[in-house]
Amino acid sequence: xxxxxxxxHIAVHALASSLQAQVAAVFFVSAACTVALALLLALLRxxxxxxxxxxxxxxYVTASWxxxxxxxxxxxxxxxxxxxxxxxxxxxLGNVLTxxxxxxxxxxxxxxxxxxxxxxxxxxxxxxLGRGIFNVDGDxxxxxxxxxxxxxxxxxxxxxxxxxxxxxxxxxxxPLLRSASSYGSERLLDLQDVFRRFAFxxxxxxxxxxxxxxxxxxxxxxxFADAFDTASMLSxxxxxxxxxxxxxxxxxxxxxxxxxxRDAIRLVDALAAEVIRQRxxxxxxxxxxxxxxxxxxxxxxDKYLRDIVVSFMLAGRDTVxxxxxxxxxxxxxxxxxxxxxxxxxxxxxxxxDPTAASFDFDKLKDMHYVHAALYESMRLFPPVQFDSxxxxxxxxxxxxxxxxxxxxVTYHAYAMGRMESLWGPDxxxxxxxxxxxxxxFVPESPYRYPVFQGGVRVCIxxxxxxxxxxxxxxxxxxxxxxEAVDRSSRxxxxxxxxxxxxxxxxxxxVRRRAHCAPS
Length: 519
Ligand code: HEM
Known about the structure:
Mean pLDDT: 86
Bound molecules: protoporphyrin IX containing FE
């Protein structure tokens, strides 16, 4: 090693050591301050302002709820069922949870202006989502909402999305299931993983016009999908850290998960920037019906374009995968529902083969039973289990609960789907017929069933999501029997994240049906 290189090596080493020393010092000082504060408060027999000894807060802080319940959402559902106004205040979290339709209507529609997403939520997702629709309030949100709602309602985008889903089904999902079934009963598939890959391919093509090919038979996972997963998982994990200053400090020092998050976001950014650059270079020759091409007509700022499209990918990927996974998990225990689906599909298809490439996606609209079965499964397993807003000013909820400025208010779709007071004594039973009247699907109020939210910020991808999920259900149920093999998946455990994910996946055995005919 030459003299210059040695000097450089020593300098780099010294710099690294000094950085490590600084990191250690910051942690030491913050730990010492916390201990000193706790001791001081104990000496003065004072409680910190966030402390609360009520039974709910105590059970939360000591995690004693976990002795009786598999998931936090199950415990919340239990508490909300028993609460007189169907509203519970978890003081230590500064969070008011509700399962009361009148309160949901109040926050999402009547007093929408008082319940924005708020700064605490935006801060958590800002690095990943930037100024995308999902993460902003006010004029920035309204501009994107108008633009996106118009695009998603346009016949061109709808037809494009239907083609994307049809081709992903025909060329990838069905061949993959066929291949899994041909190995006999030994070969298990993680259905959740398969649907995550399927939904990622679809939403990438719809949003960017880009095919990541996650569902190819060899099952490679693209670097982009991997980075996207890491970025959304680590962003969601920020919300689970009790003191936000912890992740903020880690981000400042670029260490641990925050460093991983930064690297993942860099990769997503690089790919998005490259796609946008290529598209700009090719000009009108490259414009298609994907969302990016459509938005490019109205927006010149490339970073803003990236934020908008990435928000769409986040909104439309895991939600669809989660909805489909839960659907087939329930169907595995309900062969009578699968049989009723087959009957309806053949009736609506009028004798034509519904699995054929030429199958008309418009026919999906006439499949009321399939629609009802999908809504019923999302009642029990909503892909977005809960959603929070932050009160801009003080307020009183319809059930009389006082809400101080800055309080987090959360509607709990998972708990609401399991309330006897809302769905009757058989609320725990998977029964698609509850959504039908005279054979037709009858929708519920979105404030009683806020699976797609409701009010001013209701999901704008709802129709697209339903088309995609119904198309998968029809194609898979006609050609295969899907059996969930793990008995414990009947009492699933959820992994923490922005959307409901089954911890450990959902292993299934797939059998090809002898012929695609009604049962
Ligand atoms: C089963 C599938 C889906 C479910 C259950 C679902 C549910 C939701 C929920 C609960 C929200 C409100 C989130 C919040 O404000 O924090 C939302 C918003 C949104 N969803 Fe969906 N979604 C689904 C699929 C999709 C798809 C496929 C797309 C896009 C193609 C999409 C695009 C959006 C967008 C852009 C928003 C933000 C709307 C706004 O803030 O004005 N969603 N969705």
